[in-house]
Design goal:
single chain, Aminopeptidase, 9 helices, about 35% helix, about 30% strand, disordered N terminus
């Protein structure tokens, strides 16, 4: 056996031990296969909110290659507006990720993590956050196409809305969706979004014009329909007590 293979085998054992140790702490840590080198690296990623099958955490720099592949997959980006028209270099995706990792009160990005291994399968974000008028736009995609239609997008969206309404105290969250994205429209309706309007013949795809559908949901509507994980986590904030 070559020295390189011996070193790789030792490093694999070390990574497994580190993962077991780190998983005993408050932050979830786990090994994710590198798309470039084909080896496993340990990624520290705190969990912001956790549901039954899905958790949300911040993006990290190690997500770069995975995001790069997803953004160049036309089957994925056909639902992501102008991203469908672009071809992304690794450097362009790196610049986007670096900007996304910077502190920005108006845009918050989350990695969608599939339990039990907390695998990064997509992104969800709150954008154009208007703290004065208390509204924001939400956008979501699942990059793992083999996981489409299994309810993971709905759960991730509910978790993001819980943060929007019960942490940021936003009143209305809205979204835009292409009319041909019927699966997403069903998902949004299931979560509780209502039809709010339509931009007629707003985009040109596949040799014809398509409308963009506007949908929204209010904080009151969300909290009547869904159990808030944030409220369960932060009971001291939400309990009614006299001061």
């Amino acid at each position: 056996m070559s020295l390189l293979l011996i070193l790789l085998e030792i490093s694999d054992i070390f990574l497994v031990l580190v993962c077991k140790i780190l998983n005993t702490g408050l932050s979830k840590s786990y090994a994710i296969p590198s798309l470039v080198l084909g080896i496993e690296v340990v990624i520290m990623r705190p969990i912001v909110i956790e549901g039954q099958s899905i958790a949300l955490g911040p993006l990290v720099k190690e997500d770069l290659e995975r995001l790069w592949y997803w953004m160049n997959d036309k089957e994925v980006t056909q639902y992501l507006g102008p991203l469908f028209l672009r071809v992304f270099s690794l450097e362009a995706e790196r610049k986007w990720l670096e900007k996304a990792l910077e502190a920005d009160d108006r845009n918050i990005f989350f990695a969608i993590l599939l339990k039990p291994d907390y695998e990064h399968i997509g992104n969800v974000g709150l954008h154009k956050i208007d703290y004065l008028n208390r509204n924001a736009e939400v956008a979501i995609f699942i990059g793992r196409k083999d996981l489409w239609g299994q309810g993971y997008g709905s759960e991730a969206l509910i978790l993001a809305l819980d943060i929007a309404f019960n942490v940021l105290e936003i009143n209305t969250v809205y979204l835009r969706v292409m009319e041909y994205n019927e699966r997403a429209i069903k998902c949004y309706s299931k979560v509780g979004f209502k039809f709010a309007g339509r931009l007629r013949q707003h985009i040109y795809r596949g040799g014809r014009y398509w409308d963009i559908i506007l949908m929204d949901i209010t904080r009151e509507e969300f909290n009547k329909t869904h159990r808030s994980i944030i409220k369960s986590m932060c009971k001291d904030i939400f309990q009614n007590k006299k001061t």
